[in-house]
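Example 3.2
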Amino acid sequence: NTYGTSEIWDATAFDTRHLAPLAARVPIGRPIANARVYILAAAGEPVPTGVPGELQGAGLGVGAGYRGRPELTAEKFGGLHLPEAPAERVYRTGDRARFLPDGTVECLGRLDAQFKLRGQRIEPAEIEQALARHPAVAAAVAGALVDCRDFGTLEPAHDVLVRVLARLLRGAHLVGHAHRNAVGHRRGGRV
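Structure, written as tokens:
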């Protein structure tokens, strides 16, 4: 099993032959040659073994950044300022992870709302922004529903909105269902 992102080539590997038969998670392993991983708290300091933090990758596989998107490049790629790695260039994955006692890394999910659908990285905020630009939409919320029973009936999405989203999101994979009901808001504007 290997772990990597589009922004950093494979950074870790784990030999699944050593996995316990009933393991709840598959560790993403240890850094491969010429790669380093760090798990840092929000303030940028390393976390102790077993404590979750943001997984950051470094080494030869780290990309140069996002073409034509200097703000996003500055946010996600940067220098690491630790005594053992002064000014090392890292990629902030946005993945929540922790070191296990044996030194392997376990991925615990995301720190943000990003998710994968059919192997594609989905950013709900981009979908919400695209929907909000359509004059027929007053407010939008996007996300992944694993179990829809508590959210009422899903109906086929309006063809016009699907076409608008496909154009605005440059042909991303779309699921053609939407909720017709209004979304409730809590105090402070949170959904």
